[in-house]
Write a structure and sequence with these properties.
Elements: E1 3-6, E2 17-20, E3 32-42, H1 44-51, E4 66-74, E5 86-89, E6 92-94, E7 114-115, E8 127-131, E9 136-137, H2 145-165, E10 172-176, H3 180-191, E11 195-199, H4 203-211, E12 216-218, E13 229-234, H5 240-247, E14 249-257, H6 270-273, E15 277-280, H7 286-296, E16 305-309, H8 313-321, E17 329-333
Parallel strand pairs: 10-11, 10-13, 11-12, 13-14, 14-15, 16-17
Antiparallel strand pairs: 1-2, 3-4, 3-8, 3-17, 4-5, 5-9, 6-7
Length: about 325
Protein backbone atom coordinates (compact mmCIF):
# COMPACT_ATOMS: atom_id res chain seq x y z
CA UNK A 1 0.00 0.00 0.00
CA UNK A 2 0.97 3.65 -0.25
CA UNK A 3 1.92 5.13 3.11
CA UNK A 4 3.56 8.18 4.59
CA UNK A 5 6.25 6.81 6.91
CA UNK A 6 8.29 8.44 9.68
CA UNK A 7 11.58 6.79 10.59
CA UNK A 8 13.63 9.61 12.07
CA UNK A 9 12.28 12.75 13.65
CA UNK A 10 13.31 16.17 12.33
CA UNK A 11 11.90 19.66 11.89
CA UNK A 12 9.08 19.41 9.39
CA UNK A 13 10.88 21.76 6.94
CA UNK A 14 13.55 19.03 6.70
CA UNK A 15 10.84 16.68 5.41
CA UNK A 16 11.13 13.75 7.83
CA UNK A 17 8.12 11.94 6.31
CA UNK A 18 8.70 9.62 3.34
CA UNK A 19 6.04 8.52 0.88
CA UNK A 20 6.50 4.76 0.44
CA UNK A 21 4.72 3.08 -2.49
CA UNK A 22 4.99 -0.54 -1.35
CA UNK A 23 4.58 -0.57 2.42
CA UNK A 24 3.18 -3.98 3.48
CA UNK A 25 -0.63 -4.10 3.67
CA UNK A 26 -1.71 -4.68 7.29
CA UNK A 27 -3.81 -7.82 7.89
CA UNK A 28 -6.55 -7.91 10.54
CA UNK A 29 -5.94 -10.42 13.35
CA UNK A 30 -8.66 -11.93 15.50
CA UNK A 31 -11.03 -9.22 16.72
CA UNK A 32 -9.63 -6.64 14.32
CA UNK A 33 -11.01 -4.92 11.26
CA UNK A 34 -9.11 -3.44 8.35
CA UNK A 35 -10.14 0.05 7.31
CA UNK A 36 -9.69 1.40 3.80
CA UNK A 37 -8.85 4.96 4.78
CA UNK A 38 -10.81 7.61 2.90
CA UNK A 39 -9.80 10.73 4.86
CA UNK A 40 -7.52 11.43 7.81
CA UNK A 41 -7.39 14.70 9.71
CA UNK A 42 -4.03 16.41 10.22
CA UNK A 43 -3.41 17.32 13.86
CA UNK A 44 -0.84 19.29 15.84
CA UNK A 45 0.01 16.01 17.61
CA UNK A 46 1.24 14.59 14.27
CA UNK A 47 3.59 17.55 14.00
CA UNK A 48 4.79 17.03 17.59
CA UNK A 49 5.64 13.38 16.83
CA UNK A 50 7.30 14.17 13.47
CA UNK A 51 9.46 16.90 15.00
CA UNK A 52 10.42 15.08 18.20
CA UNK A 53 8.45 17.09 20.77
CA UNK A 54 6.95 13.69 21.60
CA UNK A 55 9.25 10.63 21.59
CA UNK A 56 9.09 8.03 18.84
CA UNK A 57 7.39 4.85 20.13
CA UNK A 58 8.06 2.73 17.06
CA UNK A 59 10.03 3.16 13.86
CA UNK A 60 8.97 3.28 11.15
CA UNK A 61 5.58 4.65 12.16
CA UNK A 62 2.62 5.89 10.13
CA UNK A 63 1.12 8.98 11.78
CA UNK A 64 -2.54 10.06 11.66
CA UNK A 65 -5.28 9.42 14.22
CA UNK A 66 -8.36 11.17 12.82
CA UNK A 67 -9.41 8.34 10.56
CA UNK A 68 -12.58 7.87 8.52
CA UNK A 69 -13.06 5.09 5.99
CA UNK A 70 -14.77 1.85 5.08
CA UNK A 71 -14.33 -1.61 6.57
CA UNK A 72 -12.62 -3.62 3.85
CA UNK A 73 -11.73 -6.86 5.67
CA UNK A 74 -12.69 -8.38 9.02
CA UNK A 75 -10.63 -10.69 11.24
CA UNK A 76 -11.90 -13.86 12.89
CA UNK A 77 -14.56 -13.40 15.55
CA UNK A 78 -15.56 -9.87 14.54
CA UNK A 79 -19.27 -9.31 15.19
CA UNK A 80 -19.86 -5.57 15.32
CA UNK A 81 -18.65 -4.69 11.82
CA UNK A 82 -19.06 -6.04 8.33
CA UNK A 83 -17.30 -5.23 5.07
CA UNK A 84 -18.67 -1.95 3.66
CA UNK A 85 -19.52 -0.30 7.00
CA UNK A 86 -18.48 3.31 7.41
CA UNK A 87 -16.03 3.44 10.30
CA UNK A 88 -13.91 5.86 12.32
CA UNK A 89 -10.83 5.49 14.47
CA UNK A 90 -9.55 7.95 17.09
CA UNK A 91 -6.31 8.46 19.03
CA UNK A 92 -7.55 5.76 21.47
CA UNK A 93 -6.47 2.55 19.76
CA UNK A 94 -6.99 0.33 22.80
CA UNK A 95 -6.78 0.09 26.58
CA UNK A 96 -5.71 -2.86 28.76
CA UNK A 97 -9.19 -3.70 30.05
CA UNK A 98 -7.82 -5.01 33.36
CA UNK A 99 -6.35 -2.12 35.38
CA UNK A 100 -8.26 -0.38 38.18
CA UNK A 101 -9.30 2.37 35.78
CA UNK A 102 -10.47 0.10 32.98
CA UNK A 103 -12.49 -2.03 35.39
CA UNK A 104 -14.25 1.00 36.90
CA UNK A 105 -15.42 2.75 33.73
CA UNK A 106 -12.52 5.21 33.68
CA UNK A 107 -10.45 3.89 30.79
CA UNK A 108 -9.33 7.44 29.95
CA UNK A 109 -6.84 7.08 32.84
CA UNK A 110 -5.57 3.61 31.75
CA UNK A 111 -1.76 3.75 31.95
CA UNK A 112 -1.52 1.04 29.27
CA UNK A 113 -3.59 2.76 26.61
CA UNK A 114 -2.33 2.43 23.05
CA UNK A 115 -2.45 5.48 20.78
CA UNK A 116 -3.23 5.36 17.06
CA UNK A 117 -0.51 6.87 14.88
CA UNK A 118 2.05 6.82 17.71
CA UNK A 119 2.22 3.42 19.43
CA UNK A 120 0.78 1.67 16.34
CA UNK A 121 0.45 2.68 12.69
CA UNK A 122 -2.19 5.29 11.89
CA UNK A 123 -4.16 6.68 9.01
CA UNK A 124 -1.77 8.45 6.64
CA UNK A 125 -1.85 5.27 4.54
CA UNK A 126 -4.29 3.37 2.35
CA UNK A 127 -5.14 0.85 5.07
CA UNK A 128 -5.06 0.67 8.85
CA UNK A 129 -6.17 -2.08 11.21
CA UNK A 130 -8.23 -1.39 14.34
CA UNK A 131 -9.61 -3.31 17.32
CA UNK A 132 -13.31 -3.74 16.61
CA UNK A 133 -14.23 -2.64 20.13
CA UNK A 134 -12.47 0.69 19.69
CA UNK A 135 -13.55 1.56 16.15
CA UNK A 136 -16.64 3.76 15.78
CA UNK A 137 -19.53 2.76 13.56
CA UNK A 138 -20.31 5.82 11.44
CA UNK A 139 -23.23 4.36 9.45
CA UNK A 140 -26.05 6.88 9.59
CA UNK A 141 -23.97 10.00 10.22
CA UNK A 142 -24.98 12.31 7.35
CA UNK A 143 -21.49 13.64 6.55
CA UNK A 144 -18.82 12.93 3.92
CA UNK A 145 -15.48 11.38 4.90
CA UNK A 146 -13.68 14.75 4.90
CA UNK A 147 -16.05 15.91 7.64
CA UNK A 148 -16.08 12.58 9.50
CA UNK A 149 -12.28 12.54 9.89
CA UNK A 150 -11.86 15.64 12.10
CA UNK A 151 -14.84 14.50 14.16
CA UNK A 152 -12.51 11.73 15.39
CA UNK A 153 -10.26 14.18 17.28
CA UNK A 154 -11.50 17.74 17.84
CA UNK A 155 -15.04 16.37 17.50
CA UNK A 156 -14.73 13.85 20.33
CA UNK A 157 -12.67 16.34 22.38
CA UNK A 158 -15.46 18.89 22.08
CA UNK A 159 -18.01 16.38 23.30
CA UNK A 160 -15.77 15.45 26.25
CA UNK A 161 -15.52 19.14 27.19
CA UNK A 162 -19.30 19.40 26.82
CA UNK A 163 -19.86 16.38 29.10
CA UNK A 164 -17.55 17.81 31.76
CA UNK A 165 -19.14 21.27 31.60
CA UNK A 166 -22.59 19.62 31.47
CA UNK A 167 -24.69 22.70 30.63
CA UNK A 168 -28.47 22.30 30.88
CA UNK A 169 -30.96 23.80 28.42
CA UNK A 170 -31.24 27.52 29.17
CA UNK A 171 -27.71 27.67 30.64
CA UNK A 172 -25.03 30.03 29.39
CA UNK A 173 -21.79 28.39 28.24
CA UNK A 174 -18.56 30.37 27.90
CA UNK A 175 -15.81 29.31 25.51
CA UNK A 176 -12.31 30.81 25.74
CA UNK A 177 -10.21 30.39 22.57
CA UNK A 178 -11.66 29.36 19.24
CA UNK A 179 -9.92 26.44 17.49
CA UNK A 180 -11.62 23.40 15.91
CA UNK A 181 -12.68 21.89 19.25
CA UNK A 182 -14.32 25.17 20.27
CA UNK A 183 -15.97 25.35 16.85
CA UNK A 184 -17.58 21.94 17.38
CA UNK A 185 -18.49 22.81 20.96
CA UNK A 186 -20.33 25.91 19.73
CA UNK A 187 -22.27 23.76 17.27
CA UNK A 188 -23.18 21.20 19.93
CA UNK A 189 -24.33 23.88 22.38
CA UNK A 190 -26.38 25.68 19.73
CA UNK A 191 -27.92 22.41 18.61
CA UNK A 192 -29.04 21.72 22.18
CA UNK A 193 -30.41 25.21 22.94
CA UNK A 194 -27.57 26.49 25.10
CA UNK A 195 -26.39 30.10 24.71
CA UNK A 196 -22.70 30.49 23.86
CA UNK A 197 -20.39 33.32 24.95
CA UNK A 198 -17.09 33.29 23.07
CA UNK A 199 -13.83 34.93 24.11
CA UNK A 200 -11.30 35.18 21.26
CA UNK A 201 -9.08 37.85 19.80
CA UNK A 202 -8.60 36.66 16.20
CA UNK A 203 -10.83 38.59 13.80
CA UNK A 204 -11.50 35.49 11.69
CA UNK A 205 -12.51 33.47 14.72
CA UNK A 206 -14.81 36.25 15.90
CA UNK A 207 -16.50 36.15 12.49
CA UNK A 208 -16.89 32.38 12.60
CA UNK A 209 -18.31 32.50 16.13
CA UNK A 210 -20.78 35.11 14.95
CA UNK A 211 -21.82 32.95 11.97
CA UNK A 212 -22.41 30.08 14.38
CA UNK A 213 -24.75 32.27 16.41
CA UNK A 214 -22.73 33.08 19.54
CA UNK A 215 -24.69 35.37 21.90
CA UNK A 216 -21.58 37.39 22.84
CA UNK A 217 -18.10 37.65 21.37
CA UNK A 218 -15.42 39.50 23.31
CA UNK A 219 -12.14 39.10 25.15
CA UNK A 220 -12.51 37.84 28.67
CA UNK A 221 -9.02 38.98 29.63
CA UNK A 222 -10.10 42.57 29.03
CA UNK A 223 -13.83 42.67 29.69
CA UNK A 224 -16.36 40.63 31.65
CA UNK A 225 -19.21 39.11 29.61
CA UNK A 226 -22.52 40.99 29.99
CA UNK A 227 -24.09 38.19 32.09
CA UNK A 228 -22.67 35.60 34.50
CA UNK A 229 -22.14 32.18 32.94
CA UNK A 230 -23.05 28.70 34.19
CA UNK A 231 -20.03 26.91 32.76
CA UNK A 232 -16.91 27.79 30.81
CA UNK A 233 -14.54 25.70 28.68
CA UNK A 234 -11.08 27.24 28.33
CA UNK A 235 -8.57 26.21 25.64
CA UNK A 236 -5.56 28.58 25.64
CA UNK A 237 -2.53 27.56 27.77
CA UNK A 238 -2.80 30.85 29.62
CA UNK A 239 -2.94 30.51 33.41
CA UNK A 240 -4.08 34.12 33.74
CA UNK A 241 -7.38 33.24 32.07
CA UNK A 242 -8.37 30.91 34.94
CA UNK A 243 -9.23 33.54 37.54
CA UNK A 244 -10.93 35.76 34.92
CA UNK A 245 -13.05 32.75 33.96
CA UNK A 246 -13.92 31.95 37.59
CA UNK A 247 -14.98 35.56 38.10
CA UNK A 248 -17.37 35.24 35.16
CA UNK A 249 -19.08 32.13 36.61
CA UNK A 250 -22.28 31.94 38.61
CA UNK A 251 -22.10 30.17 42.00
CA UNK A 252 -22.28 26.42 41.36
CA UNK A 253 -20.61 26.96 37.99
CA UNK A 254 -18.00 24.73 36.38
CA UNK A 255 -14.77 25.70 34.66
CA UNK A 256 -13.33 23.06 32.32
CA UNK A 257 -9.67 23.43 31.40
CA UNK A 258 -9.22 21.80 28.00
CA UNK A 259 -5.58 22.72 27.41
CA UNK A 260 -2.78 20.13 27.77
CA UNK A 261 -0.32 22.65 29.23
CA UNK A 262 -0.55 25.99 30.98
CA UNK A 263 1.48 28.90 32.24
CA UNK A 264 1.29 29.18 36.07
CA UNK A 265 -2.22 29.47 37.46
CA UNK A 266 -2.78 31.85 40.36
CA UNK A 267 -6.09 32.42 42.09
CA UNK A 268 -5.68 35.61 44.08
CA UNK A 269 -9.15 35.96 45.55
CA UNK A 270 -10.66 32.87 47.14
CA UNK A 271 -14.12 34.39 46.58
CA UNK A 272 -13.64 33.77 42.87
CA UNK A 273 -13.19 30.03 43.45
CA UNK A 274 -15.65 29.59 46.32
CA UNK A 275 -18.65 27.45 45.31
CA UNK A 276 -17.25 26.67 41.87
CA UNK A 277 -15.72 23.55 40.32
CA UNK A 278 -12.62 23.26 38.15
CA UNK A 279 -12.26 20.15 35.94
CA UNK A 280 -9.55 19.19 33.46
CA UNK A 281 -9.85 17.26 30.22
CA UNK A 282 -7.78 14.06 30.46
CA UNK A 283 -8.17 11.71 27.49
CA UNK A 284 -11.34 10.39 25.95
CA UNK A 285 -13.32 7.27 26.81
CA UNK A 286 -15.16 5.24 24.19
CA UNK A 287 -18.51 6.12 25.75
CA UNK A 288 -17.79 9.79 24.99
CA UNK A 289 -16.83 9.10 21.36
CA UNK A 290 -19.91 6.96 20.84
CA UNK A 291 -22.20 9.59 22.35
CA UNK A 292 -20.67 12.18 20.02
CA UNK A 293 -21.35 9.94 17.01
CA UNK A 294 -25.00 9.58 18.07
CA UNK A 295 -25.28 13.37 18.39
CA UNK A 296 -23.74 13.83 14.91
CA UNK A 297 -26.71 11.90 13.51
CA UNK A 298 -29.03 14.65 14.82
CA UNK A 299 -27.15 17.95 14.60
CA UNK A 300 -24.91 19.33 11.87
CA UNK A 301 -21.29 18.52 12.75
CA UNK A 302 -19.64 19.58 9.51
CA UNK A 303 -16.58 21.81 9.87
CA UNK A 304 -14.76 24.49 7.93
CA UNK A 305 -11.68 22.70 6.57
CA UNK A 306 -8.94 22.62 3.93
CA UNK A 307 -8.56 19.33 2.08
CA UNK A 308 -5.16 18.19 0.81
CA UNK A 309 -4.34 15.46 -1.72
CA UNK A 310 -2.47 12.40 -0.42
CA UNK A 311 0.86 13.48 -1.95
CA UNK A 312 0.56 16.87 -0.25
CA UNK A 313 0.78 15.67 3.37
CA UNK A 314 4.27 16.97 4.09
CA UNK A 315 3.58 20.33 2.43
CA UNK A 316 0.35 20.57 4.39
CA UNK A 317 2.19 19.91 7.65
CA UNK A 318 4.82 22.54 6.79
CA UNK A 319 2.05 25.09 6.13
CA UNK A 320 0.27 24.03 9.30
CA UNK A 321 3.47 24.33 11.35
CA UNK A 322 3.92 27.90 10.11
CA UNK A 323 0.36 28.75 11.08
CA UNK A 324 -0.54 29.50 7.47
CA UNK A 325 -3.74 27.47 7.29
CA UNK A 326 -6.67 29.77 7.85
CA UNK A 327 -9.37 27.12 7.90
CA UNK A 328 -10.48 25.57 11.17
CA UNK A 329 -8.89 22.21 10.36
CA UNK A 330 -6.92 20.31 7.68
CA UNK A 331 -7.83 16.96 6.19
CA UNK A 332 -5.80 14.57 4.04
CA UNK A 333 -7.80 12.93 1.26
CA UNK A 334 -6.26 9.45 1.33
CA UNK A 335 -8.39 7.74 -1.31
CA UNK A 336 -11.28 9.00 -3.45
ZN1 LIG B 1 -5.83 14.99 16.54
ZN1 LIG C 1 -6.34 -0.23 31.71
Amino acid sequence: MRAWVLERQAKIEERPLKLVEDYPDPEPSRGQIRIKVKSCGICRTDLHIAEGDLPLHKSPVILGHEIAGIVDKVGEGVRDFKVGDRVGLTWLYSTCGSCKYCTSGRENYCPNRVRTGWDVDGGFAEYVVAQEGYALNLNGVPLGFDDLAPLMCPGVASYLAFELASPKPGDRLGIIGFGPTAYYLTKIANGLGIEVYVSTRAKRHRELAEQLGAAWIGNLLEEAPPRKLDCIVSFPPIGEAVERALEALNPGGTLVLAQVASTPITIGRYENLWGKTIKTVYNVKRSTSRAMVELAKRIDMSIEKRVFGFEELQDAMIEFGKGRIEEMTSVLKVSP
